[in-house]
From TrEMBL, chain A:
Lineage: Bacteria, Bacillati, Actinomycetota, Actinomycetes, Kitasatosporales
InterPro entries listed in its UniProt record: MetI-like (IPR000515), MetI-like_sf (IPR035906)
Mitochondrion among keywords: no
Principal location class: membrane
Membrane-spanning ranges: 36-56, 105-127, 139-156, 162-186, 207-233, 286-305, 317-334, 359-380, 436-455, 461-478, 487-508, 528-554, 606-627, 639-659
Cited PROSITE patterns: ABC_TM1 (PS50928)
The protein, known as: Glycine/betaine ABC transporter permease
Gene3D superfamilies: MetI-like
Domain ABC transmembrane type-1: 159-338, 480-659
Keyword tRNA-binding belongs to the record: no
Similarity comment: Belongs to the binding-protein-dependent transport system permease family.
PANTHER family in UniProt: GLYCINE BETAINE/PROLINE BETAINE TRANSPORT SYSTEM PERMEASE PROTEIN PROW, GLYCINE BETAINE_PROLINE BETAINE TRANSPORT SYSTEM PERMEASE PROTEIN PROW
Pfam families tied to this protein: BPD_transp_1
Key words, A-Z: Cell membrane, Membrane, Transmembrane, Transmembrane helix, Transport
TrEMBL record, chain B:
Source organism (scientific name): Streptomyces chryseus
Matches recorded under CDD domains: PBP2_BCP_2
Name by which UniProt lists this protein: Glycine/betaine-binding protein
Gene3D superfamilies: Glycine betaine-binding periplasmic protein, domain 2, Periplasmic binding protein-like II
UniProt KW keywords: Signal
InterPro entries associated with the record: ABC_Gly_betaine_transp_sub-bd
Species lineage: Bacteria, Bacillati, Actinomycetota, Actinomycetes, Kitasatosporales
């Protein structure tokens, strides 16, 4: 929820000035006393008052507000008025009709190319974006493999439909993101106002706002498209603003001294300088949009998501995987392509034919594609030949059965996954949840206030306490604590594994190369694909929900840790080595302490990502808020769903503030 | 001075953009996309998430396309969303509805955009079930009064010191928390959150021959794979489930219903007539559902196989010429 976006594989951890460990400890001790004293005094006065007024224990009923009534009323109003009210006739319906037409047009366009034409377009597009040279050829090769596999899996048509939706969604999200980012990059006040809005857009589960969107915009493409845009626009806005704000002051000064007006400076200096960040923003926007594919299918958008979703109803893991793999591959294709394009920015153009640069190269791509499409029309069927498909579902299902049968229980000494999950629930989750629920409401508020004040400023403390209070006011106190206990446990497991794997990857390059595709797949594979194996291995328990969260959050933590350790100043390492430090000592006493800001960022990102899959946890036995969000959507109870969604956002706010990397003094400096 | 001109310029630009938007939007939008794509007539049906209902849609779609020459568009979506889409005309029919009193009141009675389409012929029933291998060993488990005796057998890590009753997807109506409380049973609900999770868990228990108690329903294709026996709850009486907090009785038998968009029912021609006539038995639906879920046939292939073998049944659904 900070400037870093939710999937940060490519993003560098924010480099912030943090005092050395020794100084920090003493400063905290010193500051801690000063900070906690006023809090203790305030608590001394307020807590007895609160307890006398409303009692201890769980959140007092007198302090709750029922928001589901008004929400359900709004729901009714929309249904009654959407065919007659001018707001719909003259504005919202135009939006949804335009959305449907745009996606239809793109789909028909892709379809008209024929499968050969489209494959040629995809490969040449990747090649051109990565530069028409030998390094670009590798990216082009990736594209070729990606679409060959999509066709082989028998998912050609579904892939095209998903791509059409993605093209329109990413275009719309980018336009919206750039507009917001421009405004935030140029105005400080707007920047401050925008941040909480972007945070909410990313942490609010899409399940929670899917229902109002369907009511307003209709099922199918429009609702799916707008939800995707909401979820995918924030990274573009954030990184555009970051790029504009980070422009080299010297260049701007030079441009101003040459007499450039404000607008000229924006177009000729600031925007070109921000190109790299904006491309990274595009990359992130694409990844976020792809993660909405299955959710889009819940409201009838079709495509690969529908294949995954319908495979679930027959409990067919193999079929779900066959539809999940193309999603992962599309992500890999677009990630490599945008990353390669990003690397080219700023490098000098090598020699070679002029035909392969600038607009001429794009024209070449268009011409070759048109030729391929025409050839396809004349010689072959327009869709992928049916004989060239391979059904992976039977072997995958067999493999899954074998694995669950042999790993679930009965392994000597280790016990098996079922035993682990049972013990984890009994000895970690239950005590944690019961402990949190047992704490009186005021004690929990006080603990959060104290912790937030220790890591940040009084403003941090106030925000997090208010957010926790808001959960109580919404009337979902106990459920939220249940979810909180799961989030904490998932975070703990994620960090433990993530730091270990991250350190291993940083120290052994081969291990990192081997891990990279695995991490990519873990991050982009729709969670719906692995729901069934997770339940088969761990049962319908909260432990399953935690596994799903760990799988999703782990890649980001591993990547940030690896990068943080890699970027430790080589001079410091050299010094330690020359003093005779062993490899273990180097790691524990030099690398890890110096990588502290990166590790903190990893914790923060872990929190955000774990929260992002609370809803998925609800689908495998997590219960609590996640289940409520799903229930709100599937039973049409907007009040239940939105309340639970808002509570998740509040939980996110609390945990984000408590784990803000370099919060407090250094953060103030960072924000200028 | 400079900021002032910039502000003016921004204001001018913003006004221009808004003006353009207003101009482009000055006509009223169409409220529903037209029903006919080209000269071929199109019927839009929803595909619910469970297999039984997928069987209805697959067979109906197959016959509409092959026998009556329609184009059928199927769209997958949640149940309540489907009701809303039905009201707007985004889809033409729901072929299997398990009872949505709130939506029925709103769309059928008040707005009159949806009309009833008669019985599907299949009767749905929700209840508490135990696997047959467990009931055979302990025949008295099938009466709710003896459930407390077996609570220990149903214990899991999630249910603590109580017995667990496995719950399904939030799509389906459940009164189980109230029933447990009002019948003073030593049980605890565990919400699996999705049908896929519930089925996976049940398959796993059945393989290990472990005892379990679950919220379950018929018709369901899994019943052909795992033999289930219903636990008798206090008998259902009209109105005993009126107050959701005071329910202490079994679930009713629900004759599953069809619903159509009001416009479609009136002007849908042969397609509407065919869908109104569409009715089959639980066994027939199960036959197709099993082909989809168990033999892993695609819904279209399953429908084709069934249609070829059951001509006498579907002939009666055809509109009279």
């Amino acid at each position: 929820m900070t400037a870093a976006v939710t999937t940060p594989p490519k993003e560098k951890p924010a480099q912030q000035a943090v005092p050395g460990p020794g100084r920090l400890a003493s400063a905290v001790r010193h500051r801690a006393g000063r900070k906690l004293l006023p809090l203790a005094v305030a608590a001394f006065v307020l807590v007895p008052l609160g307890v006398v007024l409303w009692g201890g224990g769980s959140w007092p009923a007198a302090l709750t507000v029922d928001v589901s009534g008004p929400l359900d009323d709004a729901n009714e109003w929309v249904i009654d008025n959407r065919e007659s009210h001018p707001l719909f006739l003259y504005f919202l319906l135009h939006l949804s009709n335009t959305a449907t037409d745009a996606v239809d047009a793109v789909y028909n366009g892709l379809d008209a190319l024929g499968w050969v034409g489209f494959a040629v377009l995809a490969v040449l597009f990747a090649w051109r974006a990565a530069g028409f040279d030998r390094r670009g050829a590798k990216t082009a090769g990736t594209a070729a493999v990606v679409f060959a596999v999509c066709g082989l899996l028998g998912m050609w048509d579904a892939t095209l439909l998903t791509l059409a939706l993605m093209v329109v969604a990413v275009a719309a999200a980018s336009v919206l993101g750039i507009a917001l980012g421009l405004a935030a990059g140029l105005s400080d006040r707007f920047h401050r106002m925008l941040r909480p809005v972007l945070d909410t857009m990313q942490v609010m589960p899409a399940f929670a706002y899917l229902l109002p969107f369907v009511l307003v915009f209709g099922t199918g493409t429009p609702a799916a498209l707008f939800c995707t845009v909401i979820y995918a626009a924030p990274p573009m806005a954030r990184l555009t603003a970051l790029g504009l704000r980070g422009a080299d002051a010297g260049v701007l000064e030079a441009s101003a001294s040459l007499g450039a007006s404000g607008r000229q400076r924006l177009w000729t200096a600031r925007l070109p300088l921000a190109r790299k960040e904006m491309l990274l923003g595009l990359n992130q926007t694409i990844m976020m949009a792809l993660s909405m594919v299955v959710i889009a299918a819940l409201v009838g958008a079709g495509g690969l998501g529908e294949e995954v979703y319908s495979a679930l109803s027959t409990v067919d893991v193999g079929k779900a995987l066959a539809a999940g793999i193309p999603i992962v591959l599309i992500a890999v294709w677009l990630d490599r392509t945008t990353a390669a394009a990003g690397e080219r920015i700023g490098t000098s153009v090598p020699g070679g034919s002029r035909l392969l640069h600038g607009w001429r190269a794009w024209a070449l791509v268009a011409v070759v594609t048109a030729a391929a499409a025409a050839a396809n029309r004349a010689l072959l069927a327009p869709t992928w030949p049916e004989g060239w498909t391979y059904d992976i579902s039977t072997p995958v299902n067999k493999a899954q059965d074998w694995i669950t049968e042999h790993l679930a229980s009965g392994i000597p000494v280790l016990g098996g996954t079922e035993v682990w999950s049972e013990n984890f629930t009994l000895w970690v989750l239950n005590p944690l949840r019961d402990g949190l629920v047992w704490l009186p409401w005021w004690a929990l508020l006080l603990i959060v206030a104290g912790l937030a004040w220790l890591v940040g400023t009084w403003a941090t403390a106030l925000t997090s306490t208010l957010a926790l209070g808001a959960i109580g006011v919404l009337g979902v106190w106990t459920k939220s604590l249940d979810t909180l206990s799961q989030v904490i446990a998932a975070l703990f497991v994620t960090l433990l594994l993530g730091f270990a794997l991250g350190v291993a990857a940083a120290r052994a390059g081969r291990f990192e190369r081997w891990m990279r595709p695995v991490l990519d797949a873990m991050q982009t594979m729709p969670q719906f694909v692995y729901l069934i194996p997770v339940v088969a291995l761990f049962g319908v328990t909260r432990a399953s929900a935690i596994i799903a969260a760990v799988v999703y959050a782990l890649p980001a933590v591993v990547r940030i840790t690896t990068q943080g350790i890699r970027e430790v100043d080589p001079a410091a390492l050299e010094a330690a080595r020359s003093l005779g430090a062993g490899s273990r000592q180097q790691l524990l006493q030099v690398q890890l302490p110096l990588a502290r800001p990166a590790l903190q960022l990893a914790v923060n990102q872990g929190v955000v990502l774990v929260l992002a899959v609370v809803v998925v946890g609800g689908l495998v036995g997590g219960g609590a808020l996640g289940y409520d969000v799903v229930k709100g959507l599937s039973r049409g109870e907007m009040g239940v769903g939105m309340t639970a969604g808002a509570a998740i956002v509040c939980l996110g706010l609390v945990l984000d503030r408590l784990t803000q990397p370099g919060a407090g003094r250094s953060r103030r400096r960072h924000e200028g | 001075m400079r900021t002032k001109t910039r502000n003016t310029r921004t204001a001018v630009a913003a006004t221009a953009v808004l003006g353009l938007l207003a101009l482009s939007g000055c006509g009223a939008a169409e409220t529903g996309k037209s029903n006919d794509a080209g000269d071929k007539k199109t019927v839009k049906l929803t595909v619910p998430s469970w297999v039984g209902a997928q069987a209805n849609t697959a067979v109906a779609a197959y016959l509409l396309e092959k026998e009556l020459g329609y184009t059928v568009k199927t769209q997958q979506m949640g149940e309540v969303l489907a009701w809303d889409a039905l009201s707007k005309g985004d889809i033409d029919g729901i072929l299997e509805d398990w009872g949505h009193p709130k939506e029925e009141k709103q769309y059928v009675d008040t707005k009159k955009t949806v009309v009833k389409g008669g019985d599907l012929g299949v009767t749905g029933h929700i209840g508490w079930f135990v696997p047959k291998y467990f009931a055979d060993k302990h025949p008295d488990v099938t009466d709710w009064k003896n459930l407390n005796k077996y609570a220990d057998e149903f214990k899991t890590a999630e249910s603590g010191d109580k017995g667990e009753i496995l719950e399904g997807s939030p799509d389906y109506v459940t009164n189980d928390d109230a029933i447990i409380k009002n019948l003073k049973l030593n049980l605890k609900t565990n919400y699996s959150g999705s049908e896929a999770s519930q089925i996976t868990a049940m398959k796993k228990y059945a393989k290990a021959k472990k005892p379990f108690l679950t919220y379950w329903w018929t018709p369901q294709w899994l019943n052909a794979e795992i033999d289930m026996v219903e636990v008798k709850l206090p008998a259902y009486k009209e109105g005993c489930d009126a107050d959701p907090k005071k329910v202490a009785c079994a679930y009713p038998n629900t004759p599953l219903q069809k619903f159509f968009n009001a416009d479609f029912a009136k002007n849908g021609g042969k397609a509407a007539e065919f869908l109104k006539n569409f009715t089959w038995t639980t066994e027939q639906q199960n036959e197709v559902a099993l082909m989809i879920a168990d033999e892993k046939l695609s819904p279209e292939a399953a429908a084709e196989k069934w249609v070829k073998a059951n001509e006498s049944t579907w002939k009666t659904w055809m509109p009279k010429k």
